[in-house]
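Posting here for the record, re: pyridoxal-5'-phosphate.
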Amino acid sequence: MGTYNFEQIIDRTNTNSLKYDFTVERGKDNDVMPLWVADMDFATLPEITAAIEKRAQHGIFGYTYPKEEYQKTVINWMQKRHNYDIRPEWLVYTPGVVFAISMAVRAVTEEGEAVLIQTPVYYPFSNIVQENGRKLINNSLHYEVKDNKGVYSIDFARFEDLIIKNSVKVFLLCSPHNPVGRVWTKEELTRIGEICLKHNVIIIADEIHQDFVYGEKKHIPIASINKDIENITITCTSPSKTFNLAGLQLSNIIIANHKIRKLFKKEMGKTGFDEPNIFGIEACQAAYTYGECWLEELKVYLLENIAYVRNFVDTKMPKVIVTIPEGTYLVWLDFNKYGLELRELEDRIQNKAKLWLDEGIIFAK
Ligand SMILES: Cc1ncc(COP(=O)(O)O)c(C=O)c1O
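Prediction output follows.
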C-alpha cells in the first residue's frame, strides 16, 4: 500500500462534470460508462485541496496573477522532472492548452498558410487549424502491427517533403502523443527540430502529457534539445492532466523567443483574456511543490490499469490490436480486424457494451 488511495470510488454526478453530467445532452444513453475524456476519477493531491480551501476561506476572490514563488515552482518542476531550464519571463499563462495552441497558430501564421499535423492525433488540432482558416497538411503516422501490437512511427521523408511542397509554417507536435501514446525519442525529436529549422517552421509542442511516461522512457521537451530548436518552439504545459485540474483552467506556456512571445501575447490580448484563475494558481503551485510522490504512486496505479486493459482485450477481444502506451494514460484500440462498419462498431460499443469512448475516426480528420 502506498501513501495515497487510488481505489476510492468517488461519485462525480451532480457536480457539473462534463464526463458524468452531460451524457444525455451529448446524445448518449444515461447508463454508459464515460471513458472518452482525459479526465481521471482520482481525488487530487491533498495539498492541492488544502491550498484551495485556504484561499477560499479568505473570502475575497479578486483579480489574481502569479508571483515569483509560482514561477519558481514551475521552473523547478521543469528542471527536476524534465531536465529543462527555463526563465521566468518565458512563461505565459493561458486558461488551457487548446486555447494556447489556437493563440499560437493565429500569432505565427496568416490565414491560408499551412500547418502540419500527424494523425491520428488529438482532434482539436485539426479543428483549430481549419476553424482559423489555415491550411491543414497531414503527415499521418506510419502504423504497423508487430507481435499483434500496434507500433507508430514518423515517416521523416514525407514529413520534410510535405513541408517543402506546402510551404508549411507551423508543425503541431504532440509529445507524448495522444492517442497512440508514443514518447518520442531524442533522435526523433532532433530530426523533427532539424527539419523545422531548415525550412523555417515554428514548432507548437503540446506537452500536456509530459508527466506520464513509463519504464525506461523519458519525456524530452523538444525545446530542451538545443538553443536553436528552443528558439522556434512554443511549449504548452499544464498541471491539469497530471493532477486532474482541468476545471481550474491554468496552463503554463513556455516561449523562449522574445519575438514569438510578443506575437503570442498580442494575439491573447485580442481575446481580452488577461489574469488566470485564482484557484488555478494555488493548485499549480501546490502540485509542483508537493506532488512528486503522489505522481509516482499514480503512475504505478495507471500501469496496472493499462495492464488490465491489455489483458482483458487479449483474452476477450483477441481481434483488437492494442497500441501499448509508452506515455499518457490513454489506450488506442484498433478494431479493424472485426471488419465492422463504423456505425455498427459504434452501436456495439455504445449500446451493447455501454461504453462511451472517443471514436477513432475523429483523431484522423
Ligand atoms: C494532447 C492534449 N492536449 C490538450 C488537452 C486539453 O488541454 P486543455 O484542457 O488545457 O485545453 C488534452 C486533453 O485531453 C490533450 O490530450
